[in-house]
């Protein structure tokens, strides 16, 4: 006999946990299946360990800035392994709290993978069967691999967090969020970094912002090779050679990171047994309410083709649980104008449209404001780098449809502006706001 629940959630990552907690708070009896670590990618192999390294990179930069300010003494070397253990202890604490909270909420946690037997029945790895009228697929994604010789000699992003030593000279293949973040952080911590970029950096981002980001990366000493096409990877002793189809061999490197995007975890779920449809890349097809084509089965987070960000998975899960179990018939996530930050050095924060996208959507109606300046804390240290801020407005009344900030503090700066943008802010609202001085953020209300 199979055990019955109101809701079965596959995956205890950002999206699955949020769905399970919210549904349980509404009184649903929930089973949550997770074969790996609680918290999924974000907590274990994504945002949290990545941001930890970014904080370390900030400290490394602050140490050299401190000398320019007049602090005496030499800065200490970075103990990579010490910090890995400290990070793990922090992450263990998060997972322990999740475990406790799930128990308190009465969610039944099964530390196993699930697969569909029919549209309302899930089988666990150990052969147990669970039934529910409603099922959520929140199984996330994994790093993309290439079928080329020697691929396995390189690392994927998951491996980066388990390294016992900091790479001395790393090649990073790819040019998305993950490639740029690791390149920046490792460079700030002292590694030599060479990036192999197929076409352009951060292709979803505003061209001008990306060009400014490239300037910072080049100035920091990151070597960028454009037009690269990976042919293979070769090991000679400790040295790795990256074989580029276009320009031959590059190296030696002591590590190579493949950062080529991610593929959805939809292939081991026996979705055919339930009739759930996938798109040609393997993402579960959903409508804007997270519904799949099968009534009672929803999907959210990285296993769908929406923005692959933790707060997106979390918000989608909460709205879905509110609708299914909280009586909120209209609850659903609005996918427009979602802010995000590339945790590079300096960070790049974005909400809304790029200039190019705005021109496509609103031809002839776009007005762009921009500000380029050297932030005070850099200037004081004699550094030349400049921040770039852009505000994209449309129409006679200059509705703000995009805000872009590259510079120190941008990671914390844009959240509040994202609220205002979503509320329909006009440029005149920024003009009517008195600046906080002296700050970098004040530029956003002072642009003419
Ligand atoms: C290096 C890196 C850095 C990132 N940094 C950021 C950042 O700074 N900010 C941000 O917003 N986003 C960031 N992301 C993206 C973010 O981590 C993801 O968008 C988010 O984790 C997606 O959540 P999810 O619940 O969809 O999937 P996941 O968190 O991946 O969780 C899916 C879970 O499902 C489990 N699972 C798989 N198959 C089954 C099965 N058959 N049965 C049961 N369970 C199963 C998996 O073990 C996993 O735990 C980063 C990602 C990476 C890789
Ligand atoms: N700070 C954040 O919020 C953050 C950080 C990391 C990841 N993420 C999320 O995770 C997602 C995945 O990140 P990602 O960096 O893996 O993917 P991505 O889609 O951002 O970038 C993938 C990169 O790989 C390149 N690429 C793909 N195939 C290639 C090939 N054969 N040869 C050379 N280059 C190739 C692409 O050109 C692109 O530059 C992101 O889209 C983002 O949503 C967010």
From TrEMBL:
Extract the NCBIfam families matched here. Answer: PRK06116.1 (NF004776)
Q: What biological processes does GO assign it?
A: cell redox homeostasis; cellular response to oxidative stress; glutathione metabolic process
Q: Which family does it belong to?
A: Belongs to the class-I pyridine nucleotide-disulfide oxidoreductase family.
Q: What is its EC number?
A: 1.8.1.7
Q: Where is the active site?
A: 437 (proton acceptor)
Cofactors = FAD
Q: Name one Pfam family in it.
A: Pyr_redox_2
Offer a single GO CC term for the protein: cytosol
- Kindly provide the name given to this protein in its UniProt entry: Glutathione-disulfide reductase
All copies of domain Pyridine nucleotide-disulphide oxidoreductase dimerisation, residue ranges: 338-446
Q: Which GO terms describe its molecular function?
A: flavin adenine dinucleotide binding; glutathione-disulfide reductase (NADPH) activity
Cofactor binding summary note: Binds 1 FAD per subunit.
For the ligand (NAD(+)), the binding residues are 174-181, 261
